[in-house]
Amino acid sequence: TYTMRTTTTHEHDKLHGGLLVEGFDEESCHSRYQSAMYRRNPGRQPSKYLISKLRRHEALQRRCGPGTVAYSDALEQLKSGKNATSTSSPECKYLVSLSYRGLGNRILAAASAFLYALLTDRVLLVDPSNEMDVLFCEPFPNTTWLLPPGFPLNIRSLYAPAPERYGKMRENGALRTDIAAATNGVDLPAAFAYIHLDFDHSEQDQLFFCNDDQRLLLSNFQWLVMRTDSYIVPGLFLVDTFQEELDMMFPERDTVFHHLGRYLFHPTNYVWGLVTRYYRAHMAWAQRRVGIQVRVFSWEPNSPELLERITRCTQEEGMLPRVVGNEEESPAVTTAATTTTTGRGGGVKSSAVLVTSLKAWYSEQMKVMYWENATEGGEVVMVSQPSHEEEQQSGIKSHEVKAWAEIYLLSLTDMLVTTGKSTFGYVAQGLAGVRPWVLLNNNQAASRPCSRDMSVEPCFHIAPVYDCKRRGDAGKVVPHVRRCEDVPTGLKLV
Ligand code: GDP
Question: Rounded to the nearest whole angstrom, what is the distance from the C-alpha of residue 393 to the centroid of ligand 1?
Fold first, then answer.
């Protein structure tokens, strides 16, 4: 296998400033300790507090995770159908995170569940379905984050009608925040609570983001099962009881996904092979790497307007050179050829453009444009696209591995252009630590083809509408949680 200058890589780079721990078997997951070598932008530094919190959480996952006595005891409680917390106060509490919809959605949901688990000292167990078990390496040392087979609940069937749904138990009065059931010996209605934060959640489901409800969940439920396909993190920043802890963990608030994503999501060896082979062939040699995510749907016709927006955005914002016509040969052509082979030609830049899309048309058009036309300054532009799957699928290994490799490759670029609203693009920008230029849609694009995102953080699409206390706008409660530009009802950290 190919190794990249391992000896010159400093330990702190390899561990992302202490985010990761030594001691994992390197062979079982090459990406974990190699990824830093592929990143030109080393990323932001995690706080000491976050690092210590992660180490304590890893210990919790080992102490309480699958295979331990505590885990078997907790499963017995769940099987009994009774709630344990009214009689005892268990040392280990659990959060099961369901995995569904597209890969970007699943990554954002797992990262959100992890932050909630960190804040509430719950063991995180991730539903292994939809290839979650084959795409990612184990993030926690000497234990597993995957929910083992034989779990007593049929979790995948949990949806809005479930009687254990938290919002429903609040709505019908089975749970009340003014009576703490556990301390009053009141029988709890369910052995676990099912948190439903899908697009059709109710106002009562949104109470999850309120202080009193968090207290109720903490003292009354050993088991929680969460269904969301969203990045609920900005909602957690609205909960008073979490604020101090979050401030200490993330003094730079716009780095939450950046750090948690780099901590949790390491491509497995098969995916890493796809990433590194592509990177070396199409990106490593370039002086500048530009990632362009063109999120289109199979039923949409190819759009010359969108192509025009991409071209204008990359050229007007200085990411790629302008084309200057095809009449004569650019005087810099010979120098450019030297540049690409030696990497140090007389000031002429080389750019690798990585396009990801379900369709091939956009990158083909760009390729033709940069072949048929000379560029300003003779800059060499090489456009490539790893795959064009045409149809969106999920749960199919050969499709999912490409999607993950492409998200990861986008995150290795120096500049990013993304399609608004897309969780696929959010994950790439977060892992990269790069604020993307977001392509504006037809209605928004009066004159500008794209606008720079206000932070690298993903947008929480189905965010709570109200502030819990005052029924004011949830986008105005704290200054660092704002409405998103691409999804005006969403919330994001800045
Ligand atoms: P979102 O729908 O844009 O928020 O992103 P998701 O990742 O959640 O879902 C879209 C899914 O469609 C991806 O997970 C892939 O399965 C597929 N897909 C969309 N765009 C691409 C692409 O550029 N490349 C590949 N390989 N798959 C894509």
Answer: 8
The minimum-distance atom of ligand 1 relative to the CA of 403 is 26
For residue 394, report the distance from its CA to the centre of ligand 1, in Å: 9
Ligand 1, atom 18: nearest CA belongs to which residue? Answer: 392
pLDDT number for residue 1: 39
CA–CA gap between residue 292 and residue 467 (Å, rounded) = 36
pTM (predicted TM-score):
0.93
CB 416 within 8 A of CB 436: yes
The CATH number assigned to the domain with range 269-459 reads 3.40.50.11350
The answer to whether 216 and 182 have CB atoms below 8 angstroms apart is no
How far from the centroid of its chain's Cα atoms is residue 360's Cα? 25
Distance 104 CA to ligand 1 centre (A): 7
What's the CA gap between 228 and 115, in Å, rounded?
A: 14
Q: Which two tokens stand for residue 194?
A: 């099912």
Q: Please report how the helices 103-120 and 256-264 are oriented relative to each other, as an axis angle in degrees rounded to 10.
A: 100
- Give 313-360 as a DSSP string: HHHHTTSSPPEEESSS--TTHHHHHHHHHHS--SS--EEEEEEEES-S
Length, in residues, of the chain: 494
**ipTM beyond 0.95?**
yes
Residue at token pair 């949409």: 300
Phi, psi (rounded to 5 degrees) for 12? -70, -25
Measure the CA–CA gap between 49 and 249, rounded to whole angstroms: 5
Domain ranges of the chain: 39-264, 269-459
Q: Encoding tokens for residue 120? A: 């509430």
Q: Is the CB of 330 under 6 A from ligand 1?
A: no
Q: How far is the C-alpha of 488 from the C-alpha of 465, rounded, in Å?
A: 11
What's the alpha-carbon Rg for the chain, to the nearest Å? 24
Task: Give residue-wise pLDDT tens across range 300-309.
Answer: 999 999 999 9
Collapsing DSSP states into helix, strand and coil, what is residue 492? strand
| Among the ranges given (7-11, 59-63, 169-173, 409-413), the one the predictor scored with the smallest mean pLDDT | 7-11
Eight-class DSSP state of 306: H
- CA 238-209-99 angle, 5° bins: 115
Is the CB of 392 inside a 6 Å radius of any atom of ligand 1?
A: yes
- Percentage of the chain beyond pLDDT 70 is 89
User: Which residues pair with residue 351 across a beta bridge?
Assistant: 288, 381
Which distant-in-sequence residues (6+ apart) come within 8 Å of 101 by Cβ? 229, 394
In 3-state terms, the chain is what percent helix, strand and coil (to 5)?
Answer: 40, 15, 45
HSE-CB at 64 with a 13 A cutoff on CA atoms is: 22
CA of 302 to the centre of ligand 1 (A): 17
- Nearest of 237, 232, 240 to residue 249 by alpha carbon: 237
